[in-house]
Write a structure and sequence with these properties.
By secondary structure, the protein is α/β, with parallel strands linked by helices. The protein has helices at residues 23-36, 46-51, 115-124, 159-173, 194-214, 225-237, 241-257, 269-273, and strands spanning 13-14, 42-44, 55-56, 63-74, 81-95, 99-100, 131-133, 140-142, 147-149. It is globular. The two termini are 30 Å apart.
Length: 278
């Protein structure tokens, strides 16, 4: 599971707006940074590089991302705005290290922190979250009781594995009707079915986002081959699944972190308000 590996550059963001990337963009840019060894977390378009007095080096390849741009629907008679809806737009960005001559300050050095303390703060800050009980042989979430059940902390090989597992189960709990009321959340979904696989991908991605937030390395956490195969098959059947699951996972992450999101789109308002920055 490549999204579980520690990402070398943290806080991926647009170099001009300083807006952090989210959802599928965070996964894409994080994985590419890991693969290419980029340590600068800043990204920008070809035009943005030129606006900063620099240029993308010849032969460098960009990375596709998606952003949401708000579109207004107006009344045909008086021109008044009737409503606003988001439209997905595609952009190509380059890492700052792929460019020359940019008038940018040096990337800020990462601030040292204790991942365990931060992970504890993430879990404790989940407002109105489910009960977490350490009374089971395996980890699972019970929707009808709104309870997360985990093995004892001492049963885990390390703290990273414990918190990655906890975040996965907490992500499931965000689908509860009292929270995000995620579609298909309470349906009877057999193992390996599309509904089951999507919900597991949502929890997987959300756990990855939360692990990055806390600085937790979940790369050594094992899962069964059958579990992995279930959502791999779903991804092969639906090419849009990764994008939609990552979007739902971002909403789950925002709910756990108590971040403000747009009431209509369910996305961080900066995602919509600054889409034009690209």
């Amino acid at each position: 599971m490549p999204w579980r590996h520690p990402w070398r550059a943290r806080g991926h963001r647009n170099a001009i707006s300083n807006r952090p990337y989210r959802g599928i963009n965070l996964l894409l840019l994080g994985l590419l940074a890991l693969q290419q060894g980029y340590t600068d977390p800043r990204w920008l378009t070809y035009r943005q590089a030129a606006s900063l007095g620099g240029h993308v080096r010849r032969g460098e390849r960009g990375t596709g991302i998606v952003l949401w741009k708000p579109i207004e629907r107006r009344d045909a008679v008086d021109g008044e705005v009737i409503d606003t809806f988001p439209v997905m737009r595609f952009y190509t960005v380059f890492n700052a290290s792929q460019c020359d001559g940019l008038e940018l300050p040096e990337a800020e050095a990462a601030t040292a922190f204790d991942p365990v303390e931060r992970a504890e703060a993430v879990a404790a800050g989940y407002s109105g979250g489910p009960a977490v009980l350490h009374d089971a042989d395996v980890a699972y979430y019970v929707p009808s009781k709104d309870e997360v059940h985990l093995p004892a902390r001492t049963a885990f090989c390390d703290a990273d594995g414990y918190y990655a597992t906890l975040f996965h189960e907490l992500a499931h709990s965000t689908g509860h009707p009292s929270r995000l009321n995620r579609e298909g959340y309470r349906e009877s979904a057999p193992f390996g079915s599309p509904v089951y696989s999507r919900e597991e991908l949502v929890a997987e991605f959300a756990a990855a986002f939360l692990c990055q937030e806390a600085g937790i390395d979940a790369s050594r956490l094992d899962q069964s081959a059958a579990y992995i195969t279930s959502w791999l098959r779903a991804l092969q059947d639906d090419r849009r699944l990764a994008v939609s699951a990552a979007g739902l996972a971002q909403r789950a992450t925002d709910r756990i972190l108590d971040r403000e999101v747009d009431a209509d789109t369910g996305r961080d308002r900066s995602d919509v308000e600054h889409a034009h920055d690209e």
